[in-house]
Amino acid sequence: MRKSTDTLSRHWAMLQRIPAHPRWISTAELNQYLANEAYEIDIRSTQRDLNHLSTRFPLYCEKDGRVNHWQWAKGAHALEVPSMAPTAAFAFNLVEQYLRPLLPGSTLKLMQPYFVRASGVMKNTKFQGWRKNVRIINRGPHLQTPPINNKVRDVVYMALMERRKFEVGYTPRQKNKAVTYEVNPHGLVIKEGITYLVSTLWDYDDLKHLALHRMSKPKDLHEPAKIIKGFDLNTYIENQSSFAYPVSKGSLKLKVQFSNSAAFHLQESRLSEDQKLTPVGKDKTLLSATVPDSSEIRWWLLGFGDQVEVLGPKALRDEFAGIANNLKGFYL
């Protein structure tokens, strides 16, 4: 009885260790794994077990000389013990719906069986209708995102993960002809549906934001990328306001007077750590906050139209006065 139990346990361990298509594991690697798990079995017995299991499960073997490589057949589900829980299925559904732009094609292929399994699990749970009841909405009008070439996505993501440089054709803004760049990838940022690669070019140290949809004809150079020492993507984005389109390296001591209705959301979503809201009469609210000197803060203020008046700093007020004067010329 003990022998049968040990055999069953070993077979479960083997089936769980065999990877899904397109990855492989050799018989020798699988035998070493079993040894590490305290199963006493020689490589010939491991091969016999594999041959036996392949008659009952969709396992595929490919020979390379005298070496046998094993995988679950394409389209087959890798073995899961225990089966996928409803909460795990819910998480996989979220990944499939919202994180696809972040994942390399090769990773999506590996995860596809789990997405399919998750959908099956969800059909029989209280989460069944969640796709119809959950949405993430961005502020402003919905803009259709430009498509990204699949090969570009795969080469860029693999180069980023493995810190390799690559070559790519890139069409800059307001240009209609691609230029060939040698790229050192540092980080990936998705903003308002557009995917940007934070990178340096050739041996330069200045960071660029390259939109993936403007890339073409990528080529992995299979060479180590030149990475800026100490680079941290979070610091680059948050402390340097790099994706807020900075106007200068400084900050603004913003003083803005809003209508009460326009200022209401700032009571719940603060603009800065030092934000202060002060009532002005019955209908106005004064906002004081320190913010990066960026184009983004200007676009945000302009979006409120006549519900906002910039009081300071003076240079920013003068800038908005010029904008108001130009608008007057358009409409009057």
How is this structure best described in words?
The protein is α+β, with helices and mostly antiparallel strands. The chain has 4 domains: 2-72, Winged helix-like DNA-binding domain superfamily/Winged helix DNA-binding domain (Arc Repressor Mutant, subunit A, Orthogonal Bundle), CATH 1.10.10.10; 86-133, no CATH class; 150-234, SH3 type barrels; 244-331, Alpha-Beta Plaits, CATH 3.30.70. The chain has 11 helices and 12 strands. The chain has helices at residues 2-17, 27-36, 43-53, 86-98, 105-122, 130-133, 150-162, 233-238, 260-263, 295-302, 314-331, and strands spanning 25-26, 59-64, 67-72, 164-170, 179-191, 194-201, 208-211, 215-224, 246-259, 276-280, 284-294, 308-312. The strands form 3 sheets. It has a 5-stranded antiparallel beta sheet with strand order 7-6-5-4-8, covered by helices on one side. It is elongated, with a radius of gyration of 28 Å. The protein starts with a helix and ends with a helix. The model is unreliable at 1-5 (pLDDT under 50).
In brief, what are we looking at here?
With 332 residues, the protein is of the alpha+beta class. The chain is built from eleven helices and twelve strands.
- Please write the string of helix (H) and strand (E) elements: HEHHEEHHHHEEEEEHEHEEHEH
Query: Major sheet: order of its strands?
Result: 7-6-5-4-8
Class derived from helix and strand content: alpha+beta
Radius of gyration: 28 Å
Annotated CATH topology of the largest domain: Alpha-Beta Plaits
Q: In which range does the helix fraction lie?
A: 25-40%
CATH class of the largest domain: Alpha Beta
- Beginning-to-end CA distance, first to last residue: 94 Å
- Main sheet, how many strands, which sense, barrel? 5 strands, antiparallel
**How confident overall, as mean pLDDT?**
88
State the shape: elongated
Strand content: 25-35%
Count up the domains: 4
